[in-house]
Amino acid sequence: MGSVYRRGRVLWLKYRDYDGQWVAESTELGLGEEKQAQRLLENIENRIASGSELHDGEVGPVSVRRYAAHFIKERRALGIASADDDERRLRLHILPVLGKMDMVAVRPRHVRQLVRDLRKRVRAGRTVINIYASLRNMYNNALVDEIVEVSPCCLKRRDLPPNRDRDPAWRETAVFTVDEVVTLISDKRIPLSHRVRYAILGLAGPRVGEAVARRWRDYDPEVKPLGKLAIISKYSSHRKREEPATKSGVVRYVPVHLTLARVLREWKLHGWAEQMGRHPTADDLILPGDVDGHLPNYQVRVDFLHDLKKLGMRRRRVHDLRRSFVSIGRAHGLRKDVMEWMTHGAHGDIIDMYTTMPWEVLCEELVKLRVELRTGTVVQLPVAVAAGTTSPTKADDHASRDSAQLQPALVQSWYSRSASKSTSTKIGGSARESNSPKPFLTAYVGFEDRGRHQPATRFRGSDSTGAHRLPRSRRRPPAPGRRGLTANGSGCYTGRSVFESDGE
């Protein structure tokens, strides 16, 4: 127990330090200010006692590095989902600058300079704000532990960068279209196990850690009108263990889309047994891996980027499948509150906490999501030859080479109009009969390119003269990155074709 005593006209403090040694220190307070000196002594003793309660085997003042280790350990013990993110931000950005300083020695000017340096090195304003938030949370915790008396994290709004991405236009492109989702879950160029992952992520909307932690007992296909998938836990790749709660701590029950049900049925009956060499049990993981039985997040990302490259798609995050589930669902008419219930669970005001959404309502909304597996037989389409030639033209050679990169549409039907049929053309608002024995024909040839039916370049030609150019006023620009076919002498095209006669 320390004491306050007088030395001349100044009040002094006497107390035991971290190592138990007596220390005498001037308060720089005069006579008559004994109450302020007593409060100062109590704060010092509380700080010393709090430092000894860290139980880290160290003595002396509590440094930022020492308390950060205690802070992260405590958050992980409490099961806080952002503990790993806080540890990474402290280790990479805060401890190299403030780690050796005492907790009580850090002032607001130090924090402000740290943020200014981060704004120069880190381009994303959102990242800088997250780093500052981790430091602020640590000091708020130190206030409760009585390590410090005030927090230095009191910056003004103008000291922080705008809360936006490094590339403001990036988030608009961080989404998959319906056709891309269909390709990811249907294209047999990628393994079935990968397609099952993408089907769960894109049609149920869980986070990656939540998806890889699902077991067969979490899926009940007998529930009507749609099966039920329980999201009750997550797998942490950093700690290599399954956490008993999701990121938000909310248990969610998600209806299983009919397309996802088909994928899971095929996976359970055939694919899972072929991969593992036995039939699955209720306690087995739906998506088995090699690390402690779980599939690590980084492996999901590596496989995902490899599959995107194989399918000719641009790079995106695995998390964008969850984002696409929300975006496509909203575009197909799903209610916002139901989407929030399926992806984040019940939270908000007291009315939300008292609400239990009927299962039939969730299912009625999910069936609005129009995503189906692509089926059919892929056929190879021959290269068309221009009229009056006996061998493919140079353009046809390019089309032949590009045909390997296109997925040809199923052959449906074709027809041609009689070459002797006269046409009616409007000129100056009045119609006159055209006596041309061989009218020009316009063809639209489409290919199913990665699941999307795209119109090819528009061509115009006749039996006698071959391909001709349209008048400038009637030209249609070709679809970017697409090659078309020239008309042949008979006017017959293979594939999905539509023929029109000018003037009709």
Could you please say which CATH topology of the largest domain applies here? hpI Integrase, Chain A
Overall average pLDDT: 76
Shape: elongated
The tally of structural domains comes to 4
E-strand count: 15
The percent range for helix content is 25-40%
Structure commentary:
The protein is of the alpha+beta class. It has four domains: 3-52, no CATH class; 64-159, DNA polymerase, domain 1, CATH 1.10.150.130; 174-366, Intergrase catalytic core (hpI Integrase, Chain A); 394-501, no CATH class. It contains 16 helices and 15 strands. Strands 11, 12, 13, 14 and 15 form a five-stranded antiparallel sheet that branches. A three-stranded antiparallel sheet has the order 1-2-3, with helices on one face. Strand 9 and strand 10 form a beta hairpin. The radius of gyration is 34 Å and the shape is elongated. The protein starts with a strand and ends with a strand. Residues 385-470 and 480-504 have low confidence and may be disordered.
